Amino acid sequence: MPSSRSPRHPAPRSRRQADDPDAGTIAIAALSYFATEPKTMSRFFALTGLDPTSLRDAAASPTFVAGLLDFVLADERILLAVAEAQETTPEAIVRARQALERRPNEPIDVGSKPVGDDGWPPRPHDDWA
Question: Structure pTM?
């Protein structure tokens, strides 16, 4: 059955739940998962232009967490695996990513580094070629 929502009236965003993990915590779980899945790590490196030696520098970028979560959300298999590893739900990961978008001009605390929008890493809608 088609949705009654139109592009002008998108579905409301879910509010982040108090027990949801934050975006930074999910990003760490995702990188840990990637380390156990060489094909996933290779794909991540290929899409971002990173390599093992540049990963640390890229992780210091304010938008790294957002880009990493975009990568996780783009593949259901990865999303489910990261959610399981983090002992959370895929919906919690979606909410964490949405929380980053709700405050595009405001730094977001993910541990010790604020998240802003410096364009790194490129997001799926960017030209990754």
Answer: 0.65
